[in-house]
Design brief:
There is one protein chain. This protein is of the alpha/beta class. The protein has one domain: TIM Barrel (Alpha-Beta Barrel), CATH 3.20.20.70. It is 42% helix and 12% strand. The protein contains 14 helices and 9 strands. It has a 9-stranded mixed sheet with strand order 6-5-4-3-2-1-7-8-9. Helix 7 packs parallel to helix 8. The longest helix has 23 residues. 40% of the residues are buried.
Amino acid sequence: MPFNVFQYTLQLKNYYKTPIRPLATFLYITNKCNLKCNFCEMGNAKQPFNNDIALKDVKDILLQLKNWGVKELYITGGEPFVRKDIWDILDYCNLIGMTVTHITTNGTLLSTLKEGELEILKESTACLQISIDSTLANVHDKGRGSVGTLEMITKFLKEVDRGKLPKIHLSTFITKENYVEIPALIQFASDHEADHINFLPVNFYSNFPDLKVKDGKKNYLFDSDVGLEDLILKVDQGLKLSKVLKQSCNLQVLRLWVKQYFRYAFTQERFFNHVMEYFVCSKPFNYIHVNYYGNLLPCSMLSEETNILGKDIKSAWGAMAIKYKELLLNNKYFPPCRSCYCDFPTNLRNSLIYHPLANLRLNLRLCGYYLKRKFSENSRINN
């Protein structure tokens, strides 16, 4: 099936009626990271950190979600693989029958995985998403704050038995410093047999709403509209190359909004109002985000709402979903919404679903792309 009819129906109910259940869970299992990326608040020694959510609490959250019928799980951090008991978490997902849809990682610890750990990873996880921001070692390593990071990733991808891994996605943050490499990164993804490569602009607010935004993010802005037009040129070149190489990527969608995203950053304008007529932010009432302290978040950009450790997640999420749905559908957005770098692609797709006729032109333009991606995702999860 090209899409899950049940999930599609649930999504429509959440929008047109009272939200009843999230489509997927985003679980941040750790606030620790082994890198100090220039554009990320994590890994900063000056930031105060508490202990990560305990394993028993992670299991309780996962079991509640599974019993509730939430079938998809996205695991992130920090760096998930710095958490020593991640294998207990993945084993538990296998035990209760919850698919780990994605694990997001910087990739530098993958070469240390043992045979048994690779087996657990393959059994539990549909996709491993690895961050890479340049094909040039000095550029990638500078951005990641550590020498040798690109070499670790490429060595792993070349030497590991790919039959022992889930599908591989690459993820790239785009700034004015690396956008010229978009075609080269498409080539890199093809050369290293990545199933998909995803490009996103850098976040100009904090990547973690409980942490103070890192200084100097304005340096990633493009200097003029000339630079933005060159960005679109590189996107087009990358898209053309992806078709030649038959390399899956998200450039077709990114092209619709990346220029507006950078243009209206640090202004009072909401970039998404310049992308489509009928935009709907549906993250708080379609998905559930739980951070490394067990705090329930409205989305990846907004600060904590309530701690759910030892509590009934269903009622906590229901109250939050209703509250934020009312706010957002009345056009009451928040400052970080202007830098919705990660959740916007999902919201764009959902907006097309909720208002198909009003967004008919975009629907016709993107229909083939979304059907192809959804078919691929369903095949991956079901196999």
